[in-house]
Amino acid sequence: MLVVGAGTAGAVLALELAHHGVPCTVLERAPGLPRHDDVDRLGGRSMELLRRLSLAAPIRRAGVDPDAATDVVWSPGLDRPPALIAQRPSVNQLRRRYATVNDGTAPAEHHQEIFGTALAQLLRSALRASPLVDLREGWTCTGVTISEDAATATALDARDGTEHRLRARFLVGCDGAQSTVREAAGIGLDGLAPAVTYRGIHFRSKDLALRSRGPGLSTLVVGALILLSREERDVWLAHVPSPSGDPAQALAAALGAGIEPSEVLGVREWTDALEVAASYRSGVVFLAGEAAHRFHPAAGSPDTSVADAVNLGWKLAAVHHGWGGPALLDSYEAERRPCALMDRELLSRVLESRRRFGRLSSAGAPQEYLAGFLRHEPPPTEDLGGRYASSPVVWPERGAPHGTPSTFPGGRPPSLRLADGSQLFDHLTPGLTLVDLTADAAGAALCEAARAMRIPMTHLPLTDDFARAGWGRRLVLIRPDHHVAWRDDTAPDNWLPILNHIRGT
């Protein structure tokens, strides 16, 4: 396996492969850690997936204080009072809220905010520590050729200028918005609207009057300007529509109110095209992360990329080990591309709200009008993974799910604390897990039949009352990415068609 790019998607993919005992080589063009000044907000679902890789705890240790709430301050100008201050609860506030809830609606993990540089450092360290990951830093992929049964990448080693050729059965492009792999594979991008160029300006200002409130981090929406507070006093990150010119001057003009940055610490340029790749695969080459979907950095969420990496990782591992069939790899695009399109729509709605607020502010709308407009905007929701409604490797079931969450095939099952205090999700294995709530442990024979076909399946009998009440069926088959593949109340007369369907053969 060859992975191009060691950003969030590439790192998680490599670690997912290692989780399943599959070695891989990772090419990363940066010789050291990238500078990433944004704050990444990992949603509860991402943290659940990363918990499987033993990453949730170190991410929380390196992340923002769990008592820190997050403000979004909407203001028509830095010299005017805010029109509205919306506050998201802190991690510890959510923990207290869900402490007595055990009906499946509480996530196994809550969100976590972490500075991008800290997340990159943590993931890079995990790659270096893994005996199954060959991380080659300072290696730039310059081209890819694709044959029917393999892909060959050419890479330039920045240390000595030598060029290398690496051949792999499968190659995954996780090399970002300007993906070399995507271009080599001839895969285009579908966009929503013409791109607007932005600059992310990391700066210091002693004159900035509106600072973050309390110990948390603030997002200030000031007209068309987005300001993100940092932990250091008087340090901010601004996202400014600015195609050219001196960044300090562009920032001063956007800040207004006579405020000027005292020091520009860094600048990077990007566009808000909101594009999704027309295809996620070309033969033995796959795309994941920002190579597959170019989203807005100010959104601050790598959730789509994390889910891509986990989804593709376990499927490549299944094929590598011989129990996954060709339709399993086809299902990667069928499951993940619709999610990217939906995530793009949600992000587009958020960005349009910010643009409308800027236009209304410029037009001189009264404070009470601005506040009313903002209160009618849909609040952000915690994504618990959604459902792969039309997956070709999920056993179909008639009807629709009743309640959320549920064990309806394709979705994430309810998370529960068992009688011993442990999380049910922690009992799920890297392979398939058959959760068995039958009185006679009928699932044991099904697991034996699967293992006879070299399909890794673990039998998990439960007598827990909470699970019996909330899972809807007595036999529930869970995939490695914690999505339901099949369920029923009784063991099927013929297990083989179900097994072959869910493993893509």
Question: Mind sketching the topology for me?
Answer:
Elements: E1 2-4, H1 8-19, E2 24-28, E3 39-42, H2 44-51, H3 56-62, E4 70-75, E5 84-88, H4 91-98, E6 112-115, H5 116-129, E7 133-137, E8 139-146, E9 151-157, E10 163-168, E11 171-173, H6 180-184, E12 189-191, E13 197-204, E14 217-222, E15 225-229, E16 235-241, H7 247-255, E17 263-271, E18 275-277, E19 281-282, E20 285-287, E21 293-294, H8 303-321, H9 326-362, H10 367-375, E22 432-436, H11 443-452, E23 457-461, H12 465-470, E24 475-478, E25 484-488, H13 496-502
Parallel strand pairs: 1-2, 1-11, 2-7, 4-14, 11-20, 22-23
Antiparallel strand pairs: 3-6, 4-5, 8-9, 9-10, 12-18, 13-16, 13-17, 14-15, 15-16, 18-21, 19-20, 22-24, 24-25
Structure in words:
With 505 residues, the protein is of the alpha+beta class. Helices cover 30% and strands 24% of the residues. It has 13 helices and 25 strands. The protein has helices at 8-19, 44-51, 56-62, 91-98, 116-129, 180-184, 247-255, 303-321, 326-362, 367-375, 443-452, 465-470, 496-502, and strands at residues 2-4, 24-28, 39-42, 70-75, 84-88, 112-115, 133-137, 139-146, 151-157, 163-168, 171-173, 189-191, 197-204, 217-222, 225-229, 235-241, 263-271, 275-277, 281-282, 285-287, 293-294, 432-436, 457-461, 475-478, 484-488. The strands form 6 sheets. The protein has a 7-stranded mixed sheet, with helices on both faces. Strand 8 (139-146) and strand 9 (151-157) form a beta hairpin. The chain is globular, with a radius of gyration of 24 Å. The model has no long low-confidence stretch (mean pLDDT 89). Residues 2-340 form the FAD-binding domain.
